Amino acid sequence: MQAVNVHLRQPVTATNDFVVKFANVNGSGSASANELFARSILRMGVPVSPRNIFPSNIQGLPTWYEVRVSGKGWLGRRGGCDMMVAMNPQTWAQDVKEIEPGGYLVYDSTKPMGPEAFRDDITVIGLPLTAISNATYSDVRQRQLFKNIIGLGALSLLLGIDPKAIEQLFGEQYKGKEALLASNVKALHLGRDYVEKNLDPNICRLKVVPANAVGERIFLEGNMAAALGCVYGGATVCAWYPITPSSSLAEAFQSYCKRYRHDPDTGEAKYAIVQAEDELASIGMVIGAAWNGARAFTATSGPGISLMTEFIGLAYFAEIPAVLINVQRGGPSTGMPTRTQQADILSCAYASNGDTKHVLLFPEDPTECFEMAADALDLADRLQTPVFVMTDLDIGMNYRLCRPLRWDDSRKLDRGKVMTADELQAGKAFGRYTDVDGDGIPFRTYPGTHPTKGAFFTRGTSKNRKAGYSEEGDVYVDNMERLLHKFETAKSLCPQPEFRAAARPTRTGVIYFGSTAPAMDEALALLADEGAHFDAVRIRAFPFASSIDRFIADHDKVFVVEQNRDAQLRSMLINEIGVDPARLVAVTHYDGTPITARFIVGAINANLDLARIRLNPEMLS
After folding, report:
1. Most buried by CB count within 10 Å: which residue of 153, 239, 257, 521?
2. Structure-derived torsion over alpha carbons of residues 286, 292, 294, 298, reported in degrees to the nearest 10
3. How large is the angle between the packed helices 366-383 and 473-493, nearest 10 degrees?
4. Is the pTM higher than 0.90?
5. Contacts of 79 by beta carbon, 8 Å cutoff, 6+ apart
6. pLDDT computed for residue 59 by the predictor
7. pLDDT in tens, 57-74
């Protein structure tokens, strides 16, 4: 069937700057072909940023895979799509509606569809993929799987993707499996041959041309990077309970440990990974292992944090290291398990009953997931407290171009203040909850360090400096004030914020964190092109560095951009710094999809326009 080419609107023309979105059914085998599409463009030296949007069941519901091609290197979601590859009848109307005016609709034209199914401002490209596949293959499963590869081949010719790049990826995927390699190459060229013989070569004006814009960057998922960071950071214990979207992190840690944590001579495992009966049990195991001297962590998401809060409070008050990697998803409750948000920062910052404050780290990409997972293990030991790594589904479960992972082989694990048997034997004074040098951090001992000295009770009740039980008010206050002072010490130990000055002096600023970064980078450039200049700061940790106080004080208005409904970061800034709330303007995005530069620019411009109208009411007339 020939393509239906509609000319009521000028078709979108773009080179290395467009968005392709695949609409499929979960479990149809499309995921592998979709990823090959993204990787093949990357192999041509053109940056891509793919995002997998999938349901929380196993099979049958709609799934989408969005690939942004950006020669300029923008890695955030752009919003909208220039080409929709619509293969799911369930979502047809929604998918067609999403195409940008002048864009392209690619569909399986094996079954004819009437003109009412299409729009008159897009180019429609019909490919009889099912017919081609059925005519070539007899096995039902092969027909479905190779239909995806035939479609990939057709797209490669339409968009100008080098088939050698795809064949190279096949070779890596099916190394040693020549039969599979040959069959995939055959299916690829079936699609290319159909387009070459049946369609106008200029029907699609979206093109990929070779570039050199990737450099030394690597393509990596955040969960894999965080797991590797835990290995490099010295973690030997992982206790977890399966929960989307964090499960693949614990599974990756297990895979890395099998490769790198077995004694080469005996084969003995030098690690312990426990899938607990629930989240409460998993954090209990982490705390117990850390109390005993191991480096331990758990991977979870928002509902898991809710169940862990009692034990988190114990670790805070008893001062036991623990690392919690929270791959955030849409909440509250079960919420949207396979959608992304930054909505757990308040619940983690002040987790448990009573007065608590916890260290939070905010990675922006997989590289920082690697770095901050390792840093968190050091900080937890140094500060003797729980430390949260606040990633999310967008970072954790999507491949992202990022800086190569680096590790200094001379780096030593920072175990903090641990009193040794020799020090105890020499008569060094030991008070488990005594601040000996003014930083709020006491010395600890590992169980069994000395046969008669250095022992203490680990308790969740109030205690004195020697770990003796006490309900005296002044003793309790003394301990709580020391914990607060320790949190103040953490400011200088945590990753520091990153500041970016505008091209010209301005009294307006922007604060953001975590996975909002790639969209924010692009938004700042778009705003500058419009003549709107903003100083910016990316917060990388809580407690907030003192420089954040100064940044806010130096600006009349500061936009706080985050992916949750209740402007949680803004609330924390007000609570911790005491800033006038009127100076902090919330920009919130929380529909479960990653925030876009378009959204940020629109929200900021709307606020600025409203402010101008308030100052100049005559603008309304």
Report:
1. 153
2. 0
3. 140
4. yes
5. 596, 597, 598, 599
6. 65
7. 766 689 999 999 999 999
